[in-house]
Write a structure and sequence with these properties.
230 residues; five-stranded mixed sheet; 5 strands
């Protein structure tokens, strides 16, 4: 029990403050009485603990996480606020989130959206992700991203059709894909996702938050605002 009390006080008052409180004579018994009289602080304390835990995951990898594969960016490529999205072209919720991202970009001209291809649902997902990175390398990422999500399936024919619609040089793309040019990037995205605790798509990282699912533009805008103010 005592370690829970100490933890909660440390979170609310800061570790130094908790130590000073105890040292001044307001020890564990009084602390317990205070918490029992003010239980509303406990959820807030646990939220703060979760926030700090997530920040400890994000911060060591932030530079790597927020540095996109060249060209795989939506919004302002020089934006001061970065929103990272882990996505899979076979994911219906990712398709639903496509319009959400467009709304967020329109409302936040200072936001850079880094797309991390995270093809975990099917072999077709991986094939589409490779073509997406080839499109990014050719400066046609957004066009392919939109066309691929508009496709009815992830068949080889539909992937190539989306690439043609996006203006991708297919011969150049096939050479790069067959040479394994994008395997390292896809493996790195898996590494980053696992370290962020991401188990599905879409998932989002912004500031010190990781969000899961098609959370909608309002939630994304709120998280962006909090990152901007931090």
């Amino acid at each position: 029990m005592r370690w829970i009390v100490t933890l909660c006080i440390a979170l609310v008052a800061g570790f130094a403050g908790a130590a000073a409180w105890d040292y001044s004579g307001f020890g564990p018994d009084h602390t317990r009485d205070y918490l029992l009289a003010n239980p509303e602080i406990l959820p807030e304390a646990m939220q703060e603990l979760q926030r700090r835990d997530m920040l400890a995951r994000i911060e060591p990898l932030r530079d790597e996480l927020e540095t996109p594969f060249p060209g795989a960016v939506l919004g302002n490529p020089n934006g001061e606020i970065t929103l990272v999205e882990f996505t899979d072209y076979a994911c219906g919720y990712c398709r639903q989130s496509l319009d959400h991202v467009k709304q967020v970009v329109a409302a936040n001209p200072d936001v850079k959206v880094v797309i991390r291809e995270y093809p975990i649902l099917s072999a077709g997902s991986a094939d589409a992700a490779r073509m997406a990175l080839a499109a990014a390398e050719q400066g046609r990422y957004e066009q392919f991203h939109n066309a691929m999500f508009a496709a009815e399936s992830l068949s080889a024919e539909n992937i190539e059709r989306a690439a043609r619609q996006a203006g991708v040089d297919l011969e150049r793309a096939r050479v790069a894909i067959n040479a394994g040019a994008y395997e390292g990037q896809l493996q790195n995205n898996v590494f980053l996702a696992q370290n962020m605790g991401v188990g599905g798509t879409p998932a989002w990282v912004v500031g010190d938050q990781v969000l899961s699912g098609a959370v909608g533009p309002d939630t994304l805008n709120t998280a962006i605002g909090e990152a901007r103010d931090s």
